[in-house]
Amino acid sequence: MRASDLLVKSLENEGVKYIFGVPGEENLDFLDSLKKSKIKLIVTRHEQAAGFMAATIGRLTGKPGVSLSTLGPGATNLVTASAYAQLGGMPMMMITGQKPVKKSKQGQFQIIDTVHIMEPVTKYTKQIVFSDNIPSLIRQAFRLAEEERPGAVHLELPEDVAKEQVDQKLVQVAKVRRPIAEGKAIKQATKMIEQAKRPLLIIGAGANRKQTSKMLKQFINKTGIPFADTQMGKGVIDERHKLFIGTAALSENDYVHCAIDRADLIINVGHDTTEKPPFIMGKNKNQQVLHLNFFAAEIDKIYFPQLEIVGDIANAIWQIKENIRPQKKWDFSYYLEINKIINAEIKVTEDLKRFPLTPQYIVEETRKAMPANGILALDNGMYKIWFARHYKAYQSNTILLDNALASMGAGLPSAIATKLMYPEKKVLTVAGDGGFMMNSQELETAVRLKLNLTVLILNDNAFGMIKWKQHSEGFKNFGLEYKNPNFVKYAESYGAKGYRVSNKVDFPDILQKALKENKVSVIEIPIDYTENHKILTQKLSNKKCPK
User: Fold this and answer.
1) Quick one: which H or E segment has residue 406?
2) Quick one: pLDDT at residue 105?
3) Which of 70, 106, 297, 308 has the fewest CB atoms within 10 Å, counting from its CB?
4) Residue 176's pLDDT is what?
5) Angle between the 359-369 and 506-516 helix axes, to the nearest 10 degrees?
């Protein structure tokens, strides 16, 4: 068979269902091989979006999503998506084309050293030179992409190699059990928790990558230890749980940090230093941190845990849960008091139900409209902080946000991939006008695929988060405002349904209607971001934690 046939069969062997991308002439043999495969090619309108889609498949399944591009500019367009997957802990594979490497390269037209460009943003990058190696290269790349910490991998397929005849067997996919924490370390951790007076559990990104929910819930229910989570740890435990105190949407100085600062022991599960930190060590000298993760901590001046438990998270939690004895001296009354303050803080009062809509009102109505298993894919912008603080997630990976690379333009592609994986679930993406326009062309992809998908565009005609920062730091308003298209007509031009919210009463009804449409729906919402400075700057800067 051709080498390109062997590559496709190797991908089938790994269980690949979709490949997202923008092919070029260097991919023609691969395309011809893919034509005979059960793998579905999803042609996107930009390689960056293809990479975001592949990364999202990895995030949702734990198995690498696959993206495809040609050489040169096609390959460089994947770099941002590769960094997104690499920093976000999402397994993803990129396959890029290249001119012939064993004969004339037609000069240097479009030729760049893609393999070395990918080195800083991947776990593994390699050019396929010998077609006999394809099965082992694919197996190695997939294994590395999936292993903790997950991330991006890249293979370059030159067109002359793709055409070669090859006779090679596939490599069997073998499951590998993750190492578990050593018994002595478990005893140390158990003793550390039992000796604390005010232990507090924080659930981070790593806990959302594997099925840790069951064990964590059993641990919380047995011990009664309250918990908070990070932006990327939302939903591992249902946030309606009576012991949930809040999400650390900011690194410090929010109400949840009153509880974090009061803890004498933080049980930090799945902490990932690539995620914006949920707390900063060093302020409380009497505080200890127990790091519990698949890998050892990366030590820096704001994170230096006193004890590390390295191994499979779910197993480690189970071992501690089996050995721990709840202590009468534990005092969680302060955490429960903070929980009441936070619930009062996120409650939407009548003065917040105004027009243009406030972030708090948008979050509240969105939560009401979405079912428990509905999936919210957030782009990156000011609203992400509001959703992280105020939107309660009921299940793992039902709020997809990126707090690692924090790239704009990922929301719509992520939602498209999510809907392909879970066609039976409601999927809603929320984007600012700036982030939406960075990959808005993928509306055509969503319409072509006949997806039932809803898009909220929060329109302030500006880069709202940077505008907030500019204001908070005392700079004059400059360089962050622009004009937008008519989003209703823009959506309709792609064959989607367009809506514009023109008053506060309309929004809930429009949202419900759009979610019931059996097509792509786009809702433009004028947003009032004056709450950013009022709440996130002024109020939180002057807040006082209860004694």
Assistant:
1) none
2) 63
3) 106
4) 84
5) 40
